[in-house]
Structures are given as structure tokens and as C-alpha cells.
Amino acid sequence: MSAALAAILVTLFGLAAAGWWFGVHRRRQAETEAGIDALAAMKWRECVGLVLEALSREGFREAPASRQPGDGGTEFLLTRNNEQVLLGYKHGTAYRLGEANVRDFANGVQLAGATSGILLTLGSAEGTARDTARRYGVEVIDGNALWPKVQDYVPAQIVENVRAQAAERTRKGLWSGAVGSVLLGVATLLLGNPFDFDADAPVALPAASTQAAPAKIDLDASAKQINAAAAAMAEVAKMSETELAQRRVEAATKVSTFTQVGSAAWSTQSTLLVMLKRTDGDEKNLTQDICRILTQYEELRYTRVQLDPPMNSNIPVRWRSCQ
């Protein structure tokens, strides 16, 4: 195979891979994350109304007087096919359902006389919680699964905003992938056998080779950087949900050690909420330090950082992006 053909194939493969990763996979993730944020911004009654409407299309009906006084309106008794199902709903993205939450809810299912239960949250659920839920006949639905279920019932304006945010988040990744693919193709072309291009071409003079050397070195460095990023993403893809969650906790813990930071926690899968102890309204150096931590984890490279000012501060909430 000639170097020219190899370069074209490498470029096309890189463009296809970048298009799928950023244009499909990351776009879908970004839209889900933006959708979760939009649901969290609603009042809980509006959000649970969308949930009930979506479930009604699956045959669930709310039982008369199912909202018991004093329960905060977070549990509803539903019926389907003459069976009673208890629906539990936890509003907000900060919830992380654990095994204890599922056990408590399973007890509530028995007390309500229901045959099964559905536990929903805009947050996330631990792997142990899902295992426990299966044993008790409880279906756990977190934010990532909830948004696709209710997005058809969300007002059109909100859906448009969600898709616009997702497009903005993935646009930079698509450009980076396209540029990287072209650079990798050019590097393949220059590193290949020069006689593959034209057997009758004169041998390049030493001076010409010397002039071309800096460009080749730069392209080699770009290729190595791209290969390193691809290798890092391949390693991330092999990790379990528990390992990824531990890396997220580790990154947030490191950020919380900065003297200017009061606390750091994940409000969504792609947003790191940073509560500040003090602020000058700029935080350029702090943002650089935070991004230095986040970019050590390839899957967190495109994290959105939310900077919340101290209490009684007139400075508004700000958002920053690392890459």
C-alpha cells in the first residue's frame, strides 16, 4: 500500500471515529445531561407530572387518593393490569441512590400493598442499589434513563434549548477530532516510503530534507498526542461504572482542597459544582488549577465547571469550560 493511500485511509478512519464519538456518542450524552439539568430546574410537581404522563402511555394509571397526606407528594400508587405499583420520585440531581434507599423503598412497597415499585431520581444510582432493586422487584430509573423516557412530553422550547446546549458542547470536540484526523493523515504521508509516490522522482537534496525536518517533528508530536488521547479513551472505555465513579470522586476531592474552594461535588454527569469561600469575580487562576486536575482524567476533559459565589455575595453564578 502506498503512503498516500495509507494517509487517506487513516484520515477517513479518524474522521469517521471522531464523527461517531463526538457527533453521536458524546452528543447523545450531552443532550441527556442538558435534559437532566432542564428537568432539575423545573418545580418537582411539574417534573413528576411529566413522569406520570410518560408512564400513562405505558399503561400506568394513578390510583384514586394515592397521594397520602404528609408524604411530601413524592410517592404515588399506580395501577396497571389490576396490579398496584408504588412510584417513588426524588427530585434534584444531587441524589445518589444506594442500597439503603432501595431497601427503605422496598419496605414502603410492602406497606402500601403494592406488588412492585418504580424508584426514580434525576441523580444517579449505585451498582449495588440496582442489584438490590432486582432482588426486591423494584425498577430503578436514574436521570440518564429518565430523560429519554419523558423528553417527548417536555415543552418544545425546553427541548430546543437542550439540543442547542448539546450541539454547543459537542461542536468543539468535532473540530478537534477533524483537525486531529487530518494531522494524523499528514503524518502518515510524511513518515511513509517516499518512493511510493513516484519511482522516477529525484532524490531529495540534504538541504531540502533539513528544511522539512521541523515540520515532520511537529507532526510527529501531534500524532503522538492524538495517539495518547485515543489510548487514554480506550482505557476509560474498559472501566466499570464503579471505577468511573471513584475517579469522579477523586477529581472532586482534589478540587475541594484548594484554599479558595469550600466544596466541590458533581451536580450532573458533566457539571462540577464548586462552592467558593471567597471570590474576586475572576478566578482565572483557580479555573486553570481546576482544569489541570480534570484534564488528568480523559473522560472529564470536557467537564463544565459551575462556580457558585459565597453566601451574601452579589456576584452571579458563572460557568467555565476546560477544553
Fold and architecture overview:
With 323 residues, the protein is of the alpha/beta class. The protein has a domain at 241-321: 2-Layer Sandwich (GMP Synthetase, Chain A, domain 3). Helix content is 55%, strand content 16%. The protein is built from 9 helices and 11 strands. It has helices at 3-41, 44-56, 99-111, 127-136, 143-150, 156-191, 206-237, 241-256, 284-294, and strands at 61-62, 75-80, 83-90, 96-97, 116-121, 124-125, 138-141, 261-268, 271-276, 304-308, 318-321. The strands form 3 sheets. It has a 5-stranded mixed beta sheet with strand order 1-2-3-5-7, sandwiched between helices. The chain has a 4-stranded mixed beta sheet with strand order 8-9-10-11. A two-stranded parallel sheet has the order 4-6. Helix 1 crosses helix 5 (143-150), helix 1 (3-41) runs antiparallel to helix 6 (156-191) and helix 6 packs across helix 7. The chain is globular. The relative contact order is 0.11. The model is unreliable at 69-73, 193-201 and 208-217 (pLDDT under 50). This is Restriction endonuclease type IV Mrr domain-containing protein. Residues 40-146 form the Restriction endonuclease type IV Mrr domain. It comes from Arenimonas oryziterrae DSM 21050 = YC6267.
